[in-house]
Amino acid sequence: MAGLDDLYQELILDHYRRPRHRGTLAHPAIIVDQHNPLCGDELHVTVCLDGDRITEIAHTGEGCSISQASASMMSDAIVGHTTGEALELIEHFRQVMHREVQADEDQLGDAVALEGVNKYPVRIKCALLSWMALKDGLLTRMVDQQESR
Ligand code: ZN
Q1: Which residue ranges in the chain fall short of pLDDT 50?
Q2: Does domain 2-147 have CATH number 3.20.20.190?
Q3: What distance in angstroms lies between residue 40's CA and the mean position of ligand 1's atoms?
Q4: pTM confidence score
Q5: Of 27, 42, 43, 69, which sits most exposed with the smallest number of CB within 10 A?
Q6: pLDDT digit string (tens) for 35-45?
Q7: Residues in CB range of 21: below 8 A, 6 or more apart
Q8: What gap in Å lies between CA 104 and CA 81, rounded to an integer?
Q9: Domain limits of the chain?
């Protein structure tokens, strides 16, 4: 995409061509499907938990390079964190995409490369798709747990 820093553009293409955490987990605690009708992006995200900790995330789907690279970067950034930390990270990324805060590279890892996408309103939803999928999955699970108490 013209205008994005070359290094960041390389990083996005690298995650698109060699996605990390690609696939479907066998016994996930969370399963989410998310669709971006504006662009046609589709994502299927599965998450494994150990107690409150996210031990693995896997994603499959198809769509533009931004949506698919973002799913790879999101998985990298989130795995190993607790569900509470994950929700904070997702909120930080949402704020970055809405130009409310500067990206924190320590927290976001390679996903910091997506910051420049926030200059392209039609692509913001592509970048956010996987993050919002995970948020939906985490929040739905929390509601389920409260109801079963
Ligand atoms: Zn897209």
Answers
A1: none
A2: no
A3: 6
A4: 0.94
A5: 27
A6: 999 999 999 99
A7: 56, 57, 58, 59, 71, 72, 75, 76, 79
A8: 16
A9: 2-147
